[in-house]
């Protein structure tokens, strides 16, 4: 009999054998799929969030210079810019004004940013969708801000950012410099931090060292350092979820191991009958191989498909609060589908291959002994 035809008949018999024990096999398939779904969801989510963060950080400054007082970030004199500009390799230096405003009425923190090239009209602000949702306001409505001297400043909403930019603009408020300084009682000549562009990015560490020598109370932060921090935070949150889910995964491993390494009396009688009918030991091992492949590959495919839908179309609702953090203004956004093939193949070999191999070992033991003794057992 040709090899292809033989494999086809063995697979047909394997499917009918699985259907005869459908209750037991379906319950195993459901648990197997659920565990893969959880792990794959975490993997898809952390990989996609890291990719989104990397894309957002491409527009961040090459270097940020902050001033520290007692280990805390403090305002930096704008006059520092003159000395930094003189460092060889520095192309431009700009000051930035930004800060956080706590709204006690809803417990939300807003990020206030001054961008003179986009918005610098006193009395008007541009806000993100998260701010609009939390305050239940619309365009042309005024929002009260309590200033640091206790008075209130009413600013009218000029426009709302588009929903497509919500990942980075949900809690964002663009404000004029005059209103920003009024709310925080910020003195003239002081800024939140300084941002640099350089002619050659390979000189960044050297320029950072020179800035530290000029102003020992400052802390230069490179874009690569910010990127590594984001990666570490997202890896930590993904690892936290894996640890939480490890209990369910461990319970499944015990269940799968017990199922795969032990044959029931019915399965032993089936092997004995097949041997008595003329099946070779290799045929029985092939049948058990296909049984393991069908169950594990079905669970893997279903788990991956469900995880894909959950993360990229279901707003990863199961892990939303853990991954997004503690912020009151959760941005509403849809992740761009991204799959790391290396991680996916690693997961395949760690879930499908071990189960398939463990189904063969007990079958080999039963198939190598006398059929009569197996059927009488």
Automatic annotation (TrEMBL):
* Record key words, sorted: Cell membrane, Membrane, Transmembrane, Transmembrane helix
Keyword Aminoacyl-tRNA synthetase applies: no
Classification via InterPro entries: ABC3_permease_C, Lipoprotein-release_system
From which residue to which does the signal peptide run? none
The UniProt record lists the ABC3 transporter permease C-terminal domain at 264-371
Q: How does it sit in the membrane?
A: Multi-pass membrane protein
UniProt key word Chaperone: no
> What transmembrane ranges does the database entry give?
26-45, 238-257, 293-319
Annotated compartments: Cell membrane
Q: Which family does it belong to?
A: Belongs to the ABC-4 integral membrane protein family. LolC/E subfamily.
This protein is called ABC transporter permease
Q: Which organism is the protein's source?
A: Desulforhabdus amnigena
């Amino acid at each position: 009999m040709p090899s292809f035809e033989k494999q086809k008949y063995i697979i047909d018999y394997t499917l009918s054998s699985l259907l005869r024990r459908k209750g037991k096999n379906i319950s195993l398939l459901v648990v197997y799929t659920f565990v893969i779904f959880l792990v794959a969801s975490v993997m898809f989510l952390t990989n996609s969030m890291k990719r989104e963060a990397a894309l957002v950080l491409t527009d961040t400054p090459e270097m940020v210079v902050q001033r520290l007082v007692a280990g805390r970030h403090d305002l930096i004199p704008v006059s520092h810019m003159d000395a930094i500009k003189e460092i060889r390799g520095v192309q431009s230096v700009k000051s930035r004004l930004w800060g956080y405003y706590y709204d006690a009425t809803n417990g939300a923190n807003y990020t206030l940013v001054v961008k003179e090239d986009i918005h610098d009209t006193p009395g008007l602000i541009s806000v993100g969708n998260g701010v609009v949702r939390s305050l239940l306001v619309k365009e042309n409505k005024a929002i009260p801000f309590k200033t640091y001297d206790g008075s209130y400043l009413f600013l009218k909403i000029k426009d709302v950012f588009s929903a497509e930019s919500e990942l980075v603009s949900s809690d964002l408020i663009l404000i004029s410099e005059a209103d920003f300084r009024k709310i925080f009682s910020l003195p003239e000549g002081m800024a939140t931090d300084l941002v640099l562009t350089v002619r050659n990015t390979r000189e960044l560490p050297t320029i950072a060292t020179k800035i530290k020598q000029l102003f020992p109370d400052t802390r230069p932060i490179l874009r690569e350092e910010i990127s590594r921090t984001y990666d570490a935070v997202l890896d930590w949150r993904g690892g936290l979820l894996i640890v939480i889910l490890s209990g369910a995964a461990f319970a499944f491993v015990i269940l799968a191991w017990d199922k795969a390494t032990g044959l029931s009396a019915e399965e032993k009688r089936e092997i004995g009958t097949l041997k008595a009918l003329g099946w070779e030991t290799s045929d029985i091992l092939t049948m058990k191989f296909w049984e393991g492949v069908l169950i594990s590959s079905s669970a893997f495919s279903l788990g991956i498909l469900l995880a894909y839908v959950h993360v990229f179309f279901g707003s990863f609702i199961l892990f939303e609060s853990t991954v997004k953090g503690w912020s009151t203004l959760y941005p509403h956004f849809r992740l761009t589908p991204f799959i790391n093939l290396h991680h996916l193949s690693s997961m395949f070999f760690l879930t499908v291959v071990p189960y398939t191999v463990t189904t063969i070992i007990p079958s080999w033991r039963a198939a190598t002994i006398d059929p009569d003794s197996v059927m009488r057992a």
